Amino acid sequence: MSGDGDVRKIVVVLIGLVIINIGLMSGCTENRPEGKGETDTDGDGYIDALDAFPDDSTEWEDSDGDGVGDNADAFPLDANETVDTDGDGVGDNTDVFPLDPTEWQDSDGDGVGDNADYFPYDDTRWEQPLPDAFLELAEPYIEKLVIDDSELQAYANTITNGFDSSGRECQVNALYRDVLKNYTCISAPLDNSTLQTPQETIQKKEGTCEDLSLLLCSLLYNIGITSYLVFTDDHVYAMAYDVNTDSLWECAEQSLILQVEERFGEPISQPFIQTYTLDSLNMLYAGGDEGKTFAGVIDYMTIDYSIESNQPLHMFVVPTQTEFFALRDGDIANFTHVAQWEETNLTSKTGTIPQLFTFGGIILFNEGASAAMVSFDFLFSFQPSFYDTYNKNKLTAYEIGGKDSVLLDPTLGEYGFLGYDAEIFGEKKLLDPLTKQYVTFP
Questions:
Q1: 170 and 239 in one domain?
Q2: Which residues span the domain enclosing 171?
Q3: Is 82 within a domain?
């Protein structure tokens, strides 16, 4: 019986071990339900809930939301582009030349990309022009031109002070006159290798006609007036664009008259109005002082006169004051006068004495026994010499883009005026220094 008990114990133990083993095994292989949010259908390591492309193992994110995964999208942050076929960095949707890595834009729509198009904004041409000998000559001048400089602007504004911005003709004239009066023009052969900057010319107060023209052109640009460079075989000039020639002549004429008056030392129009008691055997003289000449700036003078006297007078027109002194001192041998204007027994007379070529005047001589009450009105008018050369009829204007433009020749000297180009011979090439376009004038 004891043997049966032992066997029973062994069976119970074995059954327990089997139950334990089964429990352990079932713990290791339990199939728990898998949650849908943790599924990774394409096995790319990104669960479907976070995978923009759950069925594509090569993609999982679409940053720009254009439907193309970031790995395949050449522009993952640009929803408008996905492909760059030619690899030039510009997407095919934007790239006008999607198969050409050297081009992507055609601004003028002529079929030639901007990089290859020498005229990217002109649909009528695209090829680079052949080398232009004139532009090669002009390039050093263009490089010296200064069109936006605060110091030049301040300098120009100082010269044109007093003229408002609408008075561009007087501004142009003021700058031009300043160069003519205050800068020395050095005569030298055309040489683009020794050009001065405008600042250097201002400092030296001298330069060749090329240097002075560059200065004028730069000063005009710095006060907002378009200007050009004009080339001939021997020289370079400046040109002011868009001017009214009538206003220009008025400004030029007035400034020339002021210069004449400065040199002459007197106004070119001199009225004398007076009532005077002229004693018996005394004389009155009105005119230039002894030794006073026209100083090379006056061609002639005209005297308009009106005389009223209560006693007869003798009137002489004399070439200088010296004749007055000779007549006063009884030196008749040295007394000369203009016979055609002599008047005797004059009590009332109005007239004009034209073109006296020396600075003389009028003598009124009371030869009677009684004093004379004399009222006279004299106007001495002087004709400046510059009118022979510089006058409105000599002001030449060129039509540029429908606007009148005039040359500024810095070689004319102190009494030159803008728009005068009678001494410039041969073909003229007018160059726009900004666009480098030029036209030719005869």
A1: yes
A2: 136-243+397-441
A3: no
- For the chain, the distance separating the N- and C-terminal CA atoms, rounded to the nearest angstrom, is 149
Token pair of 268 as six digits: 């070119």
What backbone torsions phi and psi does residue 416 show, to the nearest 5 degrees? -70, 165
Percent of the chain predicted with pLDDT > 70: 91
Residue 278 lies in a domain: yes
Look at residue 27 in the predicted model and tell me its pLDDT. Answer: 45
Domain match, 149 and 200 both? yes
Distance between CA atoms of residues 441 and 398, nearest Å: 9
| Residue 357, Cβ density class (10 Å: 0-12 exposed, 13-18 middle, ≥19 buried) | exposed
For residues 406 and 227, give the distance between their C-alpha atoms in angstroms, rounded to a whole number: 10
379 & 274 share domain: yes
CA distances for 72 relative to 41, 52, 56, 83, 198, angstroms: 20, 13, 12, 9, 59
Rounded Cα–Cα distance for residues 387 and 46 (Å): 96
- 3-state secondary structure (DSSP) of residue 131: coil
Same domain, 362 and 406: no
- For residues 242 and 171, the answer to whether their CB atoms sit within 8 Å is no
Q: How far apart are CA 181 and CA 332, in angstroms?
A: 46
Q: Tell me: the pLDDT tens digits for 27-66?
A: 433 444 444 558 999 898 999 989 999 999 999 998 989 9
User: Which of 369, 387, 405 is where one domain is finished?
Assistant: 387
Residue 208 lies in a domain: yes
Contact by Cβ (8 Å): 301, 356: yes
For 246-269, give the secondary structure using H, E and C.
HHHHHHHHHHHHHHHHHHHCCCCE
Q: What domain count does the chain have? A: 2
Do 368 and 415 lie in one domain? The reply is: no
**Which domain-ending residue is among 359, 387, 415?**
387
Q: Which of 180, 168, 286, 311 is nearest to 226 (CA)?
A: 168
Say how far apart CA 101 and CA 116 lie, in whole Å: 12
Name, in order, each residue with C-beta under 8 angstroms of 79's C-beta and a sequence gap of 6 or more.
64, 65, 66
